[in-house]
Amino acid sequence: MSEDDLEIDLDDLTRRMDGAMVALKHEFASLRTGRASASMLDPVMVDAYGATTPINQVGTVNVPEPRMVTINVWDKSLVNKVEKAIMESGLGINPQTNGTIIMLPIPELNEERRRELTKVAAQYAEQARVAVRNVRRDGMEQLKKAKNAGMSEDDQKIWHDEIQELTDKHIAQIDKALETKQAEIMQV
């Protein structure tokens, strides 16, 4: 039994939980709040050249005005595919095409659409919570192995509390981020 068997890698658990937060922020950036933003197209993937590709790799995404996003598609043969990907993305935007330029007018959000978006934000937050809990479970598995390798009960309790505290901290950050995003969406 080595000393390593009795150590729990808290840095790794923290890094992985932080990764769930980064992913959540990325998901939240894709939710539109009535203002145009290039990042709202980040989750939209286009079937280009036999691979699923992010929109920003098949064209230039610009925000020329607060309620308009434009995509200048580099390859004319991909214009229809980009248009189709946007329509199927669930963003609720109807693209208007002019040659290789696709314009996305961002409509004013009505009350019903705002409520839908807050539900989507809540789903994203729940996915992040699940990811954090999965990391916690991995930490508890490491703890179980350490127990079998001869870790003292006092040390087990300390590590258990550390892992739980880390989990609680990240869940609280997720809840706060969700609250902020939902307030932003509901703001007229």
From TrEMBL:
Pfam families reported in the protein's UniProt record? RRF
Q: Has keyword Protein biosynthesis?
A: yes
One annotated GO biological process: cytoplasmic translational termination
| InterPro entries in alphabetical order | Ribosome_recyc_fac, Ribosome_recyc_fac_dom, RRF_sf
Tell me which residues make up the Ribosome recycling factor domain: 24-186
Keyword Cytoplasm, does the record have it? Answer: yes
**What is one GO cellular-component annotation here?**
cytosol
Keyword terms: Cytoplasm, Protein biosynthesis
Q: Which CDD domains match?
A: RRF
Q: Which GO terms describe its molecular function?
A: ribosomal large subunit binding
Q: Where in the cell is it found?
A: Cytoplasm
Function, as annotated, reads: Responsible for the release of ribosomes from messenger RNA at the termination of protein biosynthesis. May increase the efficiency of translation by recycling ribosomes from one round of translation to another.
Question: Which family does the similarity line name?
Answer: Belongs to the RRF family.
Quote the protein name from its UniProt record. Ribosome-recycling factor
Question: Which organism encodes this protein?
Answer: Rhodovulum adriaticum
